[in-house]
Write a structure and sequence with these properties.
Shape: globular
Oligomer: single chain
Order of helices and strands: HHHHHHH
Structural class: mainly alpha
Radius of gyration: 17 Å
Distance between the termini: 32 Å
Number of domains: 1
Strand content: under 5%
Helix content: over 70%
């Protein structure tokens, strides 16, 4: 079961890091896509366009490096839940959803047009993150566990 949890954590980490890195590379494109989102107030759109990519990349990298992995998984799960909630509200309002989740990469253009795909993908990633959090072993906390074991 430990290898399944590790695979789930790695999958979440890879997707978060990749999505964040691509958005960081093309922030103007991600910022432009937020103009269609009525669930994000106009005065927060600039903040969201800068903070979401950085948070995604940071949480993803922390998970991949196993640096405070459980905290990074929790942060990534909260971020995924917030994004998925915003997508759901947009859909319920009958409004257009486009996130440029993977920047302007041509490979992902078709999947970006499908809001239901976005919900399924985020739901699966969220489930994997929760599974990894719940099965995270106390003995696998990363580098900080070694220093705690040495302390008297």
């Amino acid at each position: 079961m430990a290898w399944i949890a590790r695979a789930a954590a790695l999958s979440v980490g890879l997707v978060l890091f990749f999505a964040g890195a691509v958005k960081c590379y093309d922030v103007p494109s991600f910022r432009a896509s937020l103009e269609y989102w009525s669930t994000i107030p106009w005065f927060l759109k600039e903040f969201v366009s800068l903070s979401v990519p950085v948070a995604e990349a940071l949480f993803g990298l922390m998970i991949l490096l196993r640096f405070h992995e459980r905290a990074a998984l929790i942060g990534g799960a909260v971020l995924l839940a917030a994004i998925t909630s915003a997508v759901t509200v947009q859909l319920l309002k009958g409004e257009m959803v486009g996130c440029r989740c993977f920047g302007t990469m041509l490979v992902f253009r078709e999947t970006q047009g499908s809001a239901s795909w976005m919900l399924w993908r985020n739901g699966l990633l969220l489930a994997m993150a929760v599974f990894a959090i719940l099965t995270h072993s106390k003995n696998e906390r990363g580098p900080q566990a070694k220093t705690e074991a040495v302390s008297p």
